[in-house]
């Protein structure tokens, strides 16, 4: 369970968002909608333990972002690609040996479904932005985190793979992962929030 209490998000010494209390249960899908500079991305970065300019408490399974074990529970996908361009897909997902990779039929099925190349001579530097984000998402799926955060979901994936992305997120949710995403478009999720000038509003 993710729990936020008495949260004040700060940017350039100014409080830009206040959240008195927010709870997202294990296996729930939460979607945050907001315009640029609304604090949406900084909020998700705070939950992902990569932004620390805030007051208040964030708990994930009773651990706070300052706890080194918190980082082991969370995966976050943002604008910057966390992919090594000089390595192939298999190595970026975390398999050191081709035999280890080929023994995992579920991973092979995912790569085929997303039409990602698995040939050893193809480096990730040759792939599109959408393909790189698919690799990050597949890697997160294989790691089975307690919480997955995807900022600006509708910026990364083209329409041909968006349904596949959503289905993969649903699989992660069924495994018990908390899914937190943001964007500007409407999205199907158990909990939907919009960030306005009045603050965080649950729809």
Strand and helix map with partners:
Layout: E1 2-11, E2 14-24, E3 29-34, H1 40-47, E4 54-60, H2 68-73, E5 74-77, H3 89-93, H4 98-102, H5 105-113, H6 129-143, E6 147-150, H7 153-156, H8 159-174, E7 178-183, E8 191-196, E9 199-202
Parallel strand pairs: 3-7, 3-8, 5-6, 6-7
Antiparallel strand pairs: 1-2, 1-4, 8-9
Helix pairs in contact: 6-8
Write a structural description.
The protein is built from eight helices and nine strands. By secondary structure, the chain is α/β, with parallel strands linked by helices. The protein has a single domain (2-202), classed as P-loop containing nucleotide triphosphate hydrolases (Rossmann fold, 3-Layer(aba) Sandwich), CATH 3.40.50.300. The strands form two sheets. Strands 5-6-7-3-8-9 form a six-stranded mixed β-sheet, sandwiched between helices. A three-stranded antiparallel β-sheet has the order 2-1-4, with helices on one face. It is globular, with a radius of gyration of 17 Å.
Strand content: 25-35%
Order of helices and strands: EEEHEHEHHHHEHHEEE
Shape: globular
Q: What about the largest sheet?
A: 6 strands, mixed
Assign the structural class, choosing from mainly alpha, mainly beta, alpha/beta, alpha+beta, or little secondary structure. alpha/beta
- Per the CATH scheme, the topology name is Rossmann fold
Query: What is the first-to-last residue Cα distance?
Result: 20 Å
**What's the number of extended β-strand segments?**
9
Number of helices: 8
Radius of gyration: 17 Å
Tally of distinct domains: 1
CATH architecture: 3-Layer(aba) Sandwich
Mean of residue pLDDT values = 87
Helical residues, percent: 25-40%
CATH class: Alpha Beta
Q: What is the H level of CATH, i.e. the homologous superfamily?
A: P-loop containing nucleotide triphosphate hydrolases
- Sequence stretches where pLDDT stays below 50 over 5 or more residues: 98-103
Q: Strand order across the biggest sheet?
A: 5-6-7-3-8-9
